[in-house]
Specification:
By secondary structure, this protein is an alpha/beta fold. The chain is about 35% helix and about 20% strand. The protein contains 7 helices and 7 strands. Strands 5-4-1-2-3-7-6 form a 7-stranded mixed sheet, with helices on both faces. Helix 6 crosses helix 7.
Length: about 260
Amino acid sequence: MPGLRRNWVFMDETGLLVNDPTQPYFALGTLKLEQTATLYAELNRLNQRARSKVNPRFEFKFNRINSNNRRLYMDLVDLFFRFPGLYFKAFVVDTQHPGFDLEGYFRGPWEAQIRYAGLLLENIIGPDEQVAVLADYLDKPKAATTFFEDAILQVGRSYKGGASVPPVFNVCMLESDASLFIQMVDVLLGLVVYDCKIRRGVHDANVAKTSVLDVLKGHLKKQDFSRTLDVNGPPYFGIWHFAPYGAPREKGGKQ
């Protein structure tokens, strides 16, 4: 199809779709890009530095930020902003919102997560675009009949009128240690949810994590991640605080 762009989307998640006041957020993050080579070379260089100085099995994970490795995570955040073609979007669900009713709309958390992933992808895929999705691996519950990959392949097919060129042309799940791109999503998404938790008062501020968060806020010139946000950059950085059914919704931006 003339003019069709083909991009990669890397996806990760954090939190649980349960009613737990101490864990009030479930979130998905996506990193969209067209060319992987240059960014991967820089990510690999940073990763090799981490493995030589910190741990030979080092993996970038938000929950592992500490006073000894925080400089590496700051450099990871800086790296994102060195690539104007990148597009990051976080999709945040407040499970303590009065309109949140998982049982009323879904058979269970697995189906809800798949549907939320579909909503996020529909939001970020442009009309002249196709994507391949690589997502962090999740175990399918034995009782579930739907595979994540099969469901995501159907994203957008109905609202695009069953076009011969589907918005998602392939899907794969893989462990995060196999993808530096998914690790970047893990960190950026973790920083967003961390700020939300601190503002909600369910998480104590940690000096090391806050220092990395401050680097991200400095690049974006924004101080509050607990509301829907669109920073066109480049690169693009967005946060979509999804309003559950029965409540007013804030519309997320689309590239």
